[in-house]
Amino acid sequence: MRSSLAPGIRLLRALPRDSWYRGFILVLTFLFYTSYHLSRKPISIVKSELHLNCSALGRNPTNGSNSTTWCDWAPFDKDNYKELFGALDNAFLVAYAIGMFISGIFGERLPLRYYLSGGMVLSGIFTSLFGLGYFWNIHLLWYFILIQICNGLVQTTGWPSVVTCVGNWCGKGKRGLIMGIWNSHTSVGNILGSLIAGVWVASDWGLSFIVPGIIITAMGVICFFFLIEYPEDVDCSPPLHHVESEEKDPAGMFAADGNHAASSHTQESTVESAESPKERAEHPEAISFLGALRIPGVVEFSLCLLFAKLVSYTFLYWLPLYIVNVAHFGAKEAGDLSTLFDAGGILGGILSGLISDYTGGRATTCCVMLILAAPMLFLYNHVGQNGLGTSVGMLIVCGVLVNGPYALITTAVSADLGTHECLKGNAKALSTVTAIIDGTGSIGAALGPLLAGLISRTSWNNVFYMLITADLLACLLLSRVVVKEIQGWCGYSTRKRG
């Protein structure tokens, strides 16, 4: 006697074809950007190995000296090692920030599949070259800085490409929740990068870079063979990028400053979307840089992200070293503990997306989390090392509050603005808008680790005061959009009662 069809198979057969492809693209782009962050993380883990307190290891086995730097890796064996580490971070992040503004323009004018896969392969090569400096016994600072600059430039191919691809497949509906879950690739990549780098950090730190380099190169090959840029390429239906009525968007997000421009096009663009989405998608026009800046909300969210990303990337690059210096853990233990901040980032991205979908207030959600983050950073610095349990709990909470707004702005907000109603259905702005927002944020990402390297010479307390100030500035820069969202809610409630 034959059994009935398995419940799981019945579920799979019930899913429409479009959902299959959409899920496939979400998983694929998730893995792609996981590999990007996986390849960026090793430098923060290896820092504490490049400069150690060698006296703890005893005498130099080669000459029996009591030198405190005999086990360090030149040129990072001097007292200015923090400044040199800051220079390495800054070389990558400044190149990344500059390249990001250019990358969005190229991303809208080149096939995403070629652009993304090529960037991943090059990222793998440059990441591996940094690690090969260990096996080739290279001690030249300019070599490591040059590799960081090149890697920073090629890694800009990733974010505009994956957000554009996901934005092409996912409509307005539950974009915050979907992209909040999807954006966990950032934290997953950081966690995997920390764990992989930690395996070899105390023995052959070069492998801490080479193995992630091989992984991102392999993902680039997969991208070349499997990425689908547009639903229309496989005869799937394009998504609805913006709401059809005011009731579905009570807060009037992002359109508050451009209502007079957007409202005149809303009905027209909705009709166009229903009548000929495929026809319009075949002949899109890439938006100019200045045209993207004129989209309501782009400037505010870009400047907010500058300070939010400053905080996030300071943690990314300096948290393991902070734990080593303050809590006196070893390099591997500090790297493993730092992953809890990224675990909190996963929860923060999902939570911020879910709340902003429910309330319709992207800016308000960001502001509330930024305000809560400030006192939590203060508490972590002062009591976070009073016990392992306290440290674990506070790292997770800090990760939620610091990375939640960062995740929301770089994903759902970027996709919303890149498919804004005033664009009349032209989604070709996605890559440029994403690049502007993340490029501006990357300026903060470059400043944060640099300032941390300089300020940490005075005390770690001052580093945390700098981070708290940045969080509050990020919140203030969004205040105008928050006011518009609150006015939209009040107006919607009044109309509903009437």
Q: What's a quick, concise take on this entry?
A:
This protein is an all-alpha fold and 498 residues long. Helices cover 74% and strands 0% of the residues.
Can you give a write-up of this model?
The chain starts with 6 loop residues before the first helix and ends with a helix. With 498 residues, it is mainly alpha-helical. The protein is globular, with a radius of gyration of 24 Å. Helix content is 74%, strand content 0%.
Any key phrases for this structure?
498 residues, globular, single chain, mainly alpha, 20 helices
Task: Itemize the secondary structure elements and their pairings.
Elements: H1 7-14, H2 17-40, H3 42-50, H4 81-109, H5 112-135, H6 141-154, H7 158-169, H8 175-182, H9 185-200, H10 207-226, H11 259-275, H12 277-282, H13 289-293, H14 298-327, H15 331-359, H16 362-383, H17 388-418, H18 430-455, H19 460-477, H20 479-497
Helix pairs in contact: 2-5, 2-7, 2-9, 2-10, 3-9, 3-14, 3-15, 4-6, 4-18, 5-6, 5-7, 5-10, 7-18, 8-15, 8-17, 9-10, 9-15, 14-15, 14-17, 14-18, 14-19, 15-16, 15-17, 16-17, 16-19, 16-20, 17-18, 18-19
